[in-house]
What does this fold into?
Amino acid sequence: MYFDISALKGNNAYKLMTATIVPRPIAWIVSQDEQGRNNAAPFSFFGAMSGEPPVVCIGIGTRPEGTHKDTVANLHIGAGFVINMVSSELMAQMNVTAIDFAPGVDELQAAGLEIAASNKVAPPRIAASPVAMECRVQQHLDVSAHRRIIVADILAMHIRDDAVLDAERCHIDTPSLDLVGRMHGGGWYSIQNKLVELPRMTETQWRDLTPSEE
It folds into this structure.
């Protein structure tokens, strides 16, 4: 089925994207307002864009009435923020922080989440998160009146001790982190219960497996 994106109405392009670009990692962002009050919210328009330097991007939309979300306002302050990854045991608490609370409400407290101090940014990290990235905003890109992309540098990472196989070589036991991804619709997520390994081939290996035409 062919879809001409320019001919689609309303949020139909968004629906096609979120139904097919899956699973999407979740940036569970902890930020602070000008009074130093904590805010937490999950965003699944998120991904790693560069390894050297380490850069991530997060897409943040507006509320239904068109106003910016608290996270966008907080990221203008310059105090940095923390991206916490979501494990399956934290899904219910993450879902609580997705509620559109009034400004000033501490979603971390509402969800019963303990926090731990960050090293390089003011906002804390979620203590139970298996991976937390302390970040600094590099750019705000307004792609429309309703969508902003945040480009951010990763300054430091916290990874659960038992998932670190070799700290010097930075080898991580990724499956043990039990991270979830965002899927389609209003509330579907993926859980790492079936992984498949497919080693990358060299051209020589591929030619050895490909029948010769001679």
The first helix runs from residue 12 to 20. The first strand starts at residue 24 and ends at 25.
